[in-house]
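Complex record, two chains
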Amino acid sequence: MKISKNEVEKIAHLARLEIEDSRKEKMVEQLGNILQYIDKLKDADVDGVGGSSGGAIADNVLREDRPEASPGPSITLANAPDRDEDFYVVPRVVK
Amino acid sequence: MEYHELTIGSAREKLARHEISSVELTSALFDRIEKYEEGIGAFITLDREQALAQAEKADQDLAAGKGSALTGIPLALKDILCTKGIKTTCGSRILENFIPQYDGTVVSKLKGEGAVILGKTNLDEFAMGSSTENSAYKITRNPWNQEYVPGGSSGGSAAAVAARFCCGSIGTDTGGSIRQPASHCGVVGIKPTYGRVSRFGLVSYASSLDQAGPITRDVRDAALLLNAISGHDKLDSTSARVPVPDFTQALDQFDKGSLKGMRAGIPKEYVSAEGMDPEVEKVFHHAKQVLQDLGVEIKEISLPHAEFVVAAYYIIAPCEASSNLARYDGVKYGFRDRSSDDLMDMYKKTKSRGFGLEVQRRIIIGTYALSAGYYDAYYGRASKVRTLIAGDFSKAFETCDLILSPVAPAPAFKIGEKTDDPLTMYLTDIFTLSANMAGIPGISVPAGYSSKGLPVGIQMMARKFDEMALLRAGYGFEQSIGLARKFPDL
C-alpha cells in the first residue's frame, strides 16, 4: 500500500517525530516501498489461526508480592537531562 | 606465541598454568587495538584503566587458586548492554551521555566469572540494521577487507573478534544481528533460544525477539561463553526456568562418529530464494557434503510460510520498537533538545535530532501499523503469520534435528552500497529472521570464502533449548572443514 505525505505527517506526530521538509519526500517514498512489500501478508491464509507474541515458555510467571527497596532518587535521577533535587524538570505544561 | 592468537580456551589454559598473566594479555590486546582500531572502528568506548584493574584482580584470584570460568579473559560487549559506570550509547545520539547505574544480567554474570571488559562495541543504532552503517558514531569496517561492511547490527563485536582485539565478544540478535556479522567476519556466532539468556539490562529493540549471545573465534569458545551467560533471571520474566547444561561437555567427548544419525533438513524454499549469490551456494553445497561425510543425514524439508517471514518481521519488530523507543522523551535520561520551551516541541525535537533515520523509519512503520484502523491488517495479521512460521519449524523438527541454510544470500557488501535502499537491506535478512520469529536457537559457523576472499558462513537452527545440537554439529563441522583459527592480516 502506498502512503501519502499527509498520512506520514500524521503518524510522525503520533510518534512525536518531526521530519525535515527536505527529507519528507524520500521518507514517504521509502515507507511506501516497504509497506507495498509488506502487503504480501495479505496472501497468507490465516483463517482460524491465533496470533502469537513470542516467548519460549507459555506458562504464566508469578512471584511473591514482597516489597523490596527502591534504588532511590539519587540513582533513579542520575541521568536526568534536567532536574531540581528529586524532580525531573520539563518545559511548562500548563500555560 | 602472540597474545592476540589466544582463544578463550587457550588463554584459560595458559592463565591457569600461570604461563601468562591477565594483565599481560589485556595490555597486549590494548596495544593491538591502538595499532589497528583506527582502520576497523570496532569500538565506541574503550576503558583501559578499568580493564587493567579487572585484569589485576583476576591475576590475584588466579594466584590464590580462586579462578572462575572466565577469570582474566578479555572480552568486548556490544554497546547495547548496560554497563555500570560505563557509557552505554546503543549507537545513538539520544544516549550519547547515558551512564547506566547498573550492570545488565549478561554483564554481571560475565564479571562474576572473572571476565575482563575491554570496551563497548559499535552497532547499528538500537540494533536496527544489517551493516553497522547506522551507528551515530562511526562506521565499522570488515577486517577481511576494509572496503566492506562487517554485517550488523553486532558488526563491532564481530569485527573485534575477527581482528583479534579480544578473546571473544557478546552481541545481540533480534533478526540475525549475531549470526550475519559472524558470517561476514568469519567467526562463530550463536543466537540462543529466546529465554535462554536474560534480557535484563539489554536495551530493548523488539522485546519478543531480542536475545544476547556469544561471538567467538571457534565453537568451543562459544560454548564457554554460553555457559557463563545462560540461565533464569528473576529480573526478566521471559527468561526460562530450564536447566542449563555444561555446553562444553558434548564437545570434549566429541569423536568422528559423534554426528552419525543426526538428521539435517534443508528447506526447499531457501534453495530457490531470490538474490542467492552463486558463491554462497557453492560454499553451502560444500558444507552440506562435509556434514554428510560426518554421517549427518541430509534431507529436503519444507517451510511453507517462508515467503512471509520478511514481511511479518518488518511489521512485528517495528511495532515493538515504536513502543519500546517511546521512552526516549528527553525527560528521564539521554539527550534533550533545549531549543524550545514548549513540551510537545521538546519531545519532537529531542526525538528527531536524537534518533537516526533508520530508527525514525521503523518508529513510523510501527506507529502506523499499530494505529487505529490498521492494527488488524498489519500487527494482527503478522502475529498470526508468526504462529504459522513457528508451526512450520515445529513440524520440520519432527523429522530432523537441525535445519541448515546459508546465513545471508550474499557475502558482505561494500560500504555505502545499500544505505539508500532500506527494503533491499531488509531482504538480506531472509534466512536469519525465522529463528527469532520462532524463538529457536541458531548458530553461524565459518564455511568458506568468496572469490574476493570474504568469509561466508552457514547457519544451523535447532529445537528450542537444544543449543547443544548446534554446538555439537558446529564443532564437528569446524574440525572437518579446517577453517577455524584462520584470521585476516590487518
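Note: The two ends of chain A are 41 Å apart (CA to CA).
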